[in-house]
Amino acid sequence: MIGHRGTPEDENTLRGLRDAAGAGASGVEFDVWWTQDGIPVLSHDPTVDRTTTGHGPIAAMTASQVRALRTKRGEPVPTLKEALSFTATRRLTAMVELKPTPTPPQLDSLLSVIHATGAAPYVIVHSFNADAVDAVRRAAPELHTALTHEKTPITGKEAARYGTSLNVSRFLATPNAVRDWHTAGLKVYTWTANWPPAWEKAKAAGVDAVLTDRVEPYKEWARTACGPTATAAP
Prior knowledge:
alpha/beta, eight-stranded parallel beta barrel, 9 strands, 19% strand, disordered C terminus, Glycerophosphodiester phosphodiesterase
């Protein structure tokens, strides 16, 4: 089970990642944008307006300006290096979602951080943007990558073009579809499953892991529904 954005209360912060791991998540998912000076930082949105007390697009701010901000619960905006240092130390799966397609310098910074932190064995770089996934696969074919996909069905053959996993909307994760994706050699992650009916459906479909905002309730449910749970690997 993967903590979606860490936790909803402290999304894309180190506190959120720590809380998800402490509650029993085997991995965490978070989002990446780049600052004006080329530093990858964690944020779901292109601006800091919703999640911090600041204003403006991340791409127009330096890393030091972003780092000076605080969320409404008082947390700093972490760099990707900080996030992956945390996950690598604990051998947590880190699902790194690229929001934009990285430029060549941005791609270099991404790969440098992944390798410098020792996180490469545990990272899945994923994106809704197929061009972003393709860029990573061309530059670093040794990394685990995945397309993040919703709305329309996708075959295992199509999804396998983008990596070793598929991160798919829970509404598309039917038993037949999951069998097809597994036959193509893919691990299947599904998002965002937050309540027992969605967890039951994902279990019945045979997915490898769910992304959830509700880590502790999921763990309680899984103790009864699934028995001992295994850590999902990239």
